[in-house]
């Protein structure tokens, strides 16, 4: 069973994240969404950094709340989703150029990519593998310095949407 408030928090997470980067990017004249990272919008020297910082903090908190309400999902998956939420919120606490930013962002992307692998169903594992593939594409784009912003947004959007997919899905499919 999924708690009704978990459905609300799961729906709010992508709104906060995608809305945050959309509004912040629109207010930043030299920002290129294909090239530049989400973290650049929340960096110490970013124009209106509070917008993306707030979006990241809300998204992370929503993932923690959602994880507590997904009682039909394996506990290890719920714990990993909550840890991913905490790491996402910490990205807001440790903006670029903090030395802590990269490890925290890496943890957030990693945890948010693997939690579905632990959910215990074939469908969730397929979704988890898709998230891992998107994470790999983002890693390649970081190394090649091409389409970093675009690949990051595709990954982050997918990661923020999957908890809602699970929360609104029938509990019978995701039961342990």
UniProtKB/TrEMBL annotation:
<feature type="transmembrane region" description="Helical">
    <location>
        <begin position="100"/>
        <end position="119"/>
    </location>
</feature>
<feature type="transmembrane region" description="Helical">
    <location>
        <begin position="126"/>
        <end position="144"/>
    </location>
</feature>
<dbReference type="InterPro" id="IPR009339">
    <property type="entry name" value="DUF998"/>
</dbReference>
<keyword id="KW-0732">Signal</keyword>
<protein>
    <submittedName>
        <fullName>Hypothetical membrane protein</fullName>
    </submittedName>
</protein>
<feature type="transmembrane region" description="Helical">
    <location>
        <begin position="50"/>
        <end position="70"/>
    </location>
</feature>
<keyword id="KW-0812">Transmembrane</keyword>
<dbReference type="Pfam" id="PF06197">
    <property type="entry name" value="DUF998"/>
</dbReference>
<keyword id="KW-1133">Transmembrane helix</keyword>
<feature type="transmembrane region" description="Helical">
    <location>
        <begin position="77"/>
        <end position="94"/>
    </location>
</feature>
<keyword id="KW-0472">Membrane</keyword>
<feature type="signal peptide">
    <location>
        <begin position="1"/>
        <end position="26"/>
    </location>
</feature>
């Amino acid at each position: 069973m999924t708690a009704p408030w978990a459905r609300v928090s799961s729906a709010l997470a992508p709104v906060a994240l995608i809305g945050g980067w959309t509004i912040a990017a629109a207010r930043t004249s030299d920002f290129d969404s294909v090239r530049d990272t989400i973290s650049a919008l929340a960096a110490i020297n970013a124009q209106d950094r509070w917008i993306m910082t707030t979006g990241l903090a809300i998204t992370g908190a929503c993932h923690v709340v959602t994880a507590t309400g997904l009682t039909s999902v394996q506990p290890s998956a719920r714990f990993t989703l909550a840890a991913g939420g905490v790491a996402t919120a910490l990205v807001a606490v440790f903006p670029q150029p903090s030395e802590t930013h990269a490890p925290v962002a890496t943890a957030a992307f990693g945890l948010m990519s693997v939690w579905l692998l632990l959910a215990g169903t074939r469908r969730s594992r397929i979704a988890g593998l898709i998230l891992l593939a998107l994470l790999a594409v983002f890693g390649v784009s970081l190394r090649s310095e091409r389409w970093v912003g675009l690949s990051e947004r595709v990954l982050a959007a997918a990661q923020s949407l999957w908890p809602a997919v699970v929360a609104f899905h029938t509990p019978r499919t995701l039961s342990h």
